[in-house]
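Per reviewer request, we include the raw input and output of the structure prediction for the construct analysed in the revised manuscript.
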Amino acid sequence: MTPTQGAPSSPIEEIVALERPVPFVRAHRTSPLRLGGAALLAGFFLLLFVEVLLLWVPKPREETWLRVIEPAPGVLYRISPGFHADYEATINLDGFRSREVTPLDPDGFRVLALGDSTVFGLFSGDDTQPWPAQLETLLRDGHGENRPLPDVVNMGVVAFSSEGALANLKIHGERYGASAIVVGVGAWNDYQIFHEDTSMTDIEAVERDFFGPDMAAARSSFQFSGLWRWNRGRYWARKSAENTLVEEVYLEKGYFTEEAAELPRRVPLPRFREVLREFVAWGDENGAAVVFIVPALNPEADLYSEARYPIARVYREAVREAVAEFPHVRGVDAPEVLGNAMLEGAAPGDLWVDWVHLTPRGNELLAREVYTTLASMDISTFPAPRNGGASQ
């Protein structure tokens, strides 16, 4: 057989062939620096893509509080259907925690409950727990069988001041119709340090600050996009931090005193008094009885207590003064109602969820006192109790 060309032909040549160096072939390797750079670049574009999806693509409104509010002309915003915290709430087309409202029957009895989150029933539980809902239950327990069912429209809106509540009354009140209005304001939002420009109304100032600089014109086109919500949330977080620092400085300097009402407040005290009078004027013009709820703070609250914010007493006394100013207006003194319950053995935790919002039990006591107050007024359509009914 002819040996293969190039193959060793003898043992000596085989040994030489084994010792001959193998030709070096350079392996194609990418440096770690290049790999790292490519990975970083790919990661950057991936994050950018995800951010675009998260920020621009509209998300379901019910996911967070920021996604269940929407702008409303004249009142800053309203709550959209789908609101939930740790519970779901029934929100009607006007943004209120109530069923849809039909025109008031001439023989019917309707209460419009106006105010902030203490009226809305924030943290109180499901739709049966806020005091307006419990008041409606009491009224329906006593209504005559041949008359329309009485109802209570819960027009409380989270974070609203007295000016926002009054604006809602002026926008919706005449269309709804009312036998009585019950107003719960001054518990917290009105006296917070909020804006320096006293020439602006609360609604104008909140409109400016709530939506952030230069965002009002743009929000109509992408108001429910993630980018708008993200920017608004970021702006509010900064504003909240600023306000907290301002309040801490004021606390250190002892500015939260009964004499501090001249400091910039969300609704300055003189304007707050005017707003209360405007509620009364609306009731007089529309034939509706007027009841004010004197607000109460949890006496054991650690942070937002009356001990830290004695200015709360100033606004609370303004509500009492409004009741005293008009003989036909009535007041429900929540500090007295809840204070009596504590004297009888209730703990503050039985009545308050936090510093200002009531538990279902606290709301029940308040609803009963509002019912008793309405029953004492000269309202022709007030439902008479059956078999003692809710008056007992």
